[in-house]
Design a protein that fits this description.
The structure is a single chain. The chain is built from seven helices and no strands. The protein is an all-alpha fold. Helix 1 (6-27) packs antiparallel against helix 2 (34-64).
Length: 201
């Protein structure tokens, strides 16, 4: 049985969506609005959770499955190095937003370039490798680590955040990969709370 990467792809798409919203806000001179600042803060939190759990609970598991495969082990080192390369780019955007500096759009473009290249690399190289060497049980262990890192309050934000501005089919695929009650709780509670925050507005 193959691993279902629907949640991973949906999370990556949410990062791409938020970066587009941030770039549009900066170009319009609205990057200092409360809604944009709150959306940016959530983007940072979601990215930190996503990458810290990959570093702690996914890449080591993949490495353990790669004895005698130096090329593939080098790919895991690249994934970790790409995560680290994001830190100065994130800091530059944060500084630019705080000071409303003229080079903020350029800093956002640089961050978008670095993160987009990393996610494309992960999707084209790391996920096929994971599909080859890990089992669905291994993947479930990684997702369990992610859920523990988020905690209940984090899940209440993460789920509607990912689903924001998705197509019906993208929504269906993402929720199909979630535990049964999630779709109902999200529809009745979490999504309304998320919309009321008016992030990026």
């Amino acid at each position: 049985m193959p691993i279902d990467f629907a949640v991973m792809y949906a999370t990556h798409d949410a990062f791409r969506r938020d970066l587009s919203r941030l770039a549009a806000a900066a170009e319009s001179g609205l990057a200092d609005s409360p809604g944009v600042r709150a959306g940016w803060a959530n983007f940072n939190r979601q990215l930190h959770v996503h990458h810290s759990v990959e570093d702690a609970a996914l890449w080591p598991r993949v490495l353990d499955a790669l004895p005698g495969r130096p090329h593939d082990r080098a790919l895991m080192a690249e994934m970790q190095a790409e995560h680290a390369a994001l830190d100065p780019a994130l800091a530059a955007v944060e500084k630019g937003m705080r000071r409303q500096s003229a080079d903020l759009p350029e800093s956002i473009h640089k961050l978008t370039e670095i993160l987009s290249q990393h996610m494309a690399h992960e999707e084209s190289s790391a996920l096929p490798l994971i599909q080859e060497v890990l089992t669905p049980k291994d993947w479930d262990a990684f997702r369990g680590a992610m859920a523990r890192k988020q905690g209940p309050s984090g899940a209440a934000v993460y789920i509607p955040w990912v689903l924001d501005d998705t197509t019906p089919e993208q929504r269906r695929r993402f929720l199909a990969a979630m535990p049964g009650p999630v779709a109902l709780i999200n529809r009745l509670l979490w999504e309304r709370r998320y919309r009321n925050r008016r992030w990026w507005h």
